[in-house]
Structures are given as structure tokens and as C-alpha cells.
Amino acid sequence: MSRIEIDNLTKRYRTGSGDDILAVEDLSLDLADGEFLVLVGPSGCGKSTTLRCIAGLEPVSGGEIRFGDADVTDRTPEERNVAMVFQNYALYPHMTARGNMAFGLRMTTDLSKEERNERVESAARMLGIEDLLDDKPKELSGGQQQRVALGRAIVRKPEVFLMDEPLSNLDAKLRTTMRTEIQRLQSDLGVTTVYVTHDQTEAMTMGDRIAVLDGGELQQVGTPLECYYEPANLFVANFIGEPSMNFFETEVAGDALVGDAIRYELSGDHLDAVAESERVTLGVRPEDVEIAETRRDAFAGTVRVVEPMGDQNFLHLDVGGVDVTAAVAGEYEVREGANVMVRFPEAKIHLFDADSGEVLANCRRHSAQLPTATGTGGEAA
Ligand code: ADP
User: Fold this and answer.
1) Candidates 9, 11, 13: which one to mutate for ligand 1, based on the most atoms within 8 Å of Cβ?
2) Best CATH choice for the domain 4-229 from the list 3.90.1530.10, 3.40.50.300, 1.10.357.10, 3.40.1080.10
3) Whose C-alpha lies nearest to ligand 1, atom 22?
4) How confident is the model at residue 89 (pLDDT cuts 50, 70, 90)?
């Protein structure tokens, strides 16, 4: 168990034709002991490369990696005491689940057979696979195989867990269950973990913090809610959140933002925020788009598609030629083709400098507490 510090990590690959690919550029991250950090970003952004550098599977081109006080940058994977879990479980088909989980221990430790068995059985209990230990991989479902792969990592009692899209091969329902299970395991074991995914839902739901990468560069690192409510730039605003934030391209004209689709009057702090910018992108999340009853401060839209989710309907609207998604309560009956007025409350908008992509202002974020039941409870019945 240890803190992980990554300082200015850079990784270049040389291709067969002699070209240099800059896969990771000047990446610095600091993980607290026991932290669960999710590295997220689109395909090709450098997530796996970063993980492989932390594991010692790739030599770095520049920078330093430390576990606790130890500089591990030049250590082999074996010397780093990390355990990896991959998308393809990579189990040995001819070995039982027990054999697969114990294999690494047999090869790399001098634990006795009894000690190995004890570790395997304790991990199997944690994962609920005690009854499957004598089965071979082909007798196990995908979810069970992934549990064995997790067990194989757990028995090693590593200093660091590195997970590369471990849930991608599972069906949607199982993925949701395993998400919670991995979080519980990680928190019970307290092992510092770096988890790679391209799936923003996994990132939002699993990590203590998220590190968002694009083009090999770190865009933002923060708690899931910070990345959601206070994105550092347009990339993060667009990447985090499902459905995505809506965007309008505008120019600053006096006290207003003027675009092809909207003219939006700004006030107070927002005017100061855009003072140095010429072109501004206005962003608003689907749940913050209000369906307006009056025309005041509202824009005309046409419902193109209604996507019912049960508790919510996602309305895909055309607002002056811009696609806008609005999330409204599921009980509303909305016809495709209907004309509606939409409003973007000023407290809820995000503003970005369109040229640099950097955020100028984020929405106001209210935090609320869940009510907690008090009293004896008996008299309420
Ligand atoms: P991600 O995990 O985010 O999908 P990767 O870390 O696998 O991204 O890749 C980052 C970039 O490095 C990509 O452009 C990819 O093509 C390139 N890359 C990855 N591995 C190699 C390699 N072994 N040789 C050359 N280029 C590579």
C-alpha cells in the first residue's frame, strides 16, 4: 500500500516507419495511499500507456514514478509489487480457478502450499467464488472468470492495483454489479488503485477522483462531481456527463452573447468572466434546460426525437439549428414535432473561451444534505 507520485511522465513510441508518437506528454498525478483513481478519456488518449508505465511494462521516455518514498521508474514489473487486471482475463485454460489464482504465488513467492491455499480461499470468499475453485475457466461465466482474475490479483497482496478496462467484456447488468463489487473490494483492501476506462459512467461512479486525458495530456483531475460541475475546459465538459452538455457558439457583443441560434443576455460576474474573450461557447447540461411557459428569456425549439428512459424523457430539440438535449420528467407526454420554448437559467450555464477551450465560468453548484431520520420512529406508524 502506498502513495503513487507521477512526475512529468512522457512516453514516446517509435513506429516501424521511424515516426515518433507522443502517447503521453508531461503527465503529473499524485495518488494518496489507498486512493482509487480512474484514468478516463477516448480511445488512443494514452490511458493504457500510462498504466503500462506505472506497471513497468513500458520504459518511460521522461519523468519519474514513485511508490511511497521509492523511485520505481527503472524497476522491473516484478520489483514493483503491482497486480494488474485486464479486459481479457488471461486465465490459463487448463488450470482450475484455484490453480489460476495460486499460480503467481507459486512462481514468485516461497509461500507453502497451505499458505497459498489460505490466501486463495480468503480471496475466493471475498469474491463469492468459493464453490467454483475447482472449475476450469471454460466452465465459468464471463463475470466469474473476471472474479478469478481479480482473485489472482488480490492474493498477491500488491502495493498497487492496476486495472485496464476490466469490465468491458461483461454485459451491461453485470458491469453495474461488478462496478460496485470492485469498489467495495478496493475500499476493504485499501490498496492504491489506478483504473483505466473509456466509459465516463464508470469513471463517475467508481473513482475517488478522475483524471481526464486527451491526446496524451491531462485535462483535469478532480472528484467526479468537480469534473461534472466544474469542468476545467470544453473537452472535460463534453466528455463527462451522459447525455453530454449542450453547446452554443457565440460572440461577445456588449452585454450579450450572440450566435446564430441564440442571443443570451449576461449579467454580473458573467460579464467580467467574458471580458477578455471574443468568441465564447455557452454550455448547459440537459437537466438544466427548462421548458418555459412564457417567452421571456426563452428560445424556440422543435422536438425532433423523444427518448423515454422511464424516470426521465430526453428531448432532442432543434433550437435555431443547434441540437439541444433536454431532460424532463418521464411523466410528460411529448409529441415529436411539438414546438416548445426553452430557457437556460443564468445560474446554470457554463462559459468557455472558444479559442482556448478554457473555462471562464461554471454553473453555481448547490450541495444539499439527505434528510436523516430522527426520533424513535414508533409513533409515525
Ligand atoms: P488508450 O489506452 O487511451 O486507448 P494507448 O495508451 O493505448 O491509448 O495509446 C496512446 C497512443 O500511443 C495511440 O496513438 C497509440 O496508437 C499509440 N501506441 C500505443 N502503443 C503503441 C506501441 N506499442 N507502438 C506505437 N504506438 C503505440
Assistant:
1) 13
2) 3.40.50.300
3) 13
4) confident
